[in-house]
């Protein structure tokens, strides 16, 4: 029986703007724990940034439509 070999990437995971796919790949394949932790942290930071941007856009749309928070809760 042949077992698939796991390949690890030992290059540092730098602090540049990565896509979520690159972050997921780093979590799966980085060989050093510090690089995996950095990828996880960057993933959370990206999610937080994206959610903040979406929240602002939703609030702008809500204001443009003249909807209150109660109006949205009743949808």
Keywords:
75 residues, 3 helices, mainly alpha, 64% helix
Mean pLDDT: 92
Supply the number of helical segments: 3
Order of helices and strands: HHH
Radius of gyration: 20 Å
User: In whole angstroms, how far apart are the ends?
Assistant: 57 Å
Which secondary-structure class do the elements indicate? mainly alpha
Structurally, the number of domains stands at 1
Level of helix content?
55-70%
**Morphology call:** rod-shaped
Biggest β-sheet strands, sense, barrel: none
Question: Total strand count, please?
Answer: 0
Fraction of residues in β-strands: under 5%
Unreliable residue stretches: none
Would you spell out the secondary-structure blueprint of this structure?
Elements: H1 20-29, H2 33-65, H3 69-73
Helix pairs in contact: 1-2
Overview of this protein structure:
The chain starts with 19 loop residues before the first helix and ends with a helix. The model has no long low-confidence stretch (mean pLDDT 92). Helix 1 runs antiparallel to helix 2. The protein has one domain (20-73). The chain has 75 residues and is an all-alpha fold. It contains three helices and no strands.
Question: How would you summarize this macromolecular structure in one to three sentences?
Answer:
This protein is mostly helical.
């Amino acid at each position: 029986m042949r077992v698939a070999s796991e390949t690890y990437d030992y290059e540092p995971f730098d602090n540049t703007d990565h896509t979520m796919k690159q972050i997921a790949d780093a979590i799966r394949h980085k060989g050093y724990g510090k690089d995996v932790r950095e990828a996880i942290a960057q993933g959370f930071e990206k999610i937080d940034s994206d959610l903040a941007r979406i929240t602002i856009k939703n609030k702008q749309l809500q204001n443009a439509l003249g909807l209150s928070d109660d109006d949205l809760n009743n949808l």
